[in-house]
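Help! Submission page says 'invalid entity' but I think these are all valid:
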Amino acid sequence: MPDGSQKKPSRIQKHNRRVILDAALDVFSQHGFRGATLDQIATEAGLSKPNILYYFQGKEDIHLTLLSQLMETWLDPLVELDPNGDPQTEILDYVQRKLDMARDLPRESRLFAGEILQGAPRMGPHLERDLKPLFDEKCAVIAHWINTGKIAPLDPQHLIFSIWATTQHYADFAAQVSVLLGSQTDPHQRASDHLKAMFSGMLRPPACD
Amino acid sequence: MPDGSQKKPSRIQKHNRRVILDAALDVFSQHGFRGATLDQIATEAGLSKPNILYYFQGKEDIHLTLLSQLMETWLDPLVELDPNGDPQTEILDYVQRKLDMARDLPRESRLFAGEILQGAPRMGPHLERDLKPLFDEKCAVIAHWINTGKIAPLDPQHLIFSIWATTQHYADFAAQVSVLLGSQTDPHQRASDHLKAMFSGMLRPPACD
DNA sequence: AAAAAATTTTACCATTTGGTAAATCCACGA
DNA sequence: TCGTGGATTTACCAAATGGTAAAATTTTTT
């Protein structure tokens, strides 16, 4: 009897949990926690509602499971920021990784955005425990790059915010972006080029003398 | 008998509609359309549910009214971007106006963000009709500034996206920002300084020779 | 193949939700 | 001051929602 069991899951169990989480990601990312319904998730997953509650303790459990799994993926690009690499390259590559993630995992981006937008009621602790230490660590790395004159003197904390904002924008505000760009050739490449130019411009040390 | 009436509204009518819309802004911006309930809005407004439905045709009507009213406010800062002003100043001032709006109208920002996040189901037409023409117009202005060498050659469309993203981030992701910044002195001023430095850096024409 | 365990379905249930009908209250102009 | 129309409340309702109990079915183990 699964749901909260500690036994190793059968293959049918693993399969169904994955199917449910995938369906739930669809629904939660589109309607938010309170706007999503178990019936919707069940229909999307091709299972009955009670069957879903056989695998998860409830709606909240599904949502929390999704957010927990997501956190890892979400932090990964920042983890890879190498203190020993070339500062400009490291930051530009980080921007690129985040942008690629917005393209490849838009549902995850929106799930995350929705949760934060609503005040992070179910993720506050995760942010504090997992994100904050990493954030502080990488801010220190950037601060060091600045102090040694490798990049322009920007506020590290807010620089990271700006990177998150500009990249995730393409997933979270896709509906607006697509209206405004119309049918354009390879918007992702354009976005990538723009962000590269933008961050290159602002990062290059200020004086040319 | 109000709700859809064309008569001029009494002062009590005007007052209650305003109270309801203010309460609804709270609730919708926090829970999204589907997650919000009329009971919540009623409680927040200090009115009974049927009384609310006396002033609005239904939940959707309230939401739509909010979005319509918001659109005007939302476009305003961009409208003010002056083709005849100094390019650098104009853009930096625009950034500042947007940032101030994120600070002063966070609920509105989140309402908008939530609607877009969910695919703009009730606002697609508004975007197409009101936002797109203005967006195209101002992109042309920026393109002209670039062509005459006044600012660095950035993609106008994506530059505007980046301005929106970086400024609205402080309202939409406030829950995350506050966790990561901790209790810091005047985060808004820091954000303002950062954005100014950042956009100054990227806008200044590339070569110093 | 039989027993045991895991999985799925059927039939519910209490609560919440958006919304309505009609009775009542109340402000205000004649 | 009294009538009238706007404003508000009371009492509902049908549908949807999160969730449960237990029977039925399938899978796995012996």
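Support: the input was valid. A stray whitespace character was the problem, and the output above is from the cleaned input. Residues 1-2, 10, 12-13, 16, 47-48, 50-51, 54 of chain A lie near DNA strand C (CB under 10 Å from a C1').
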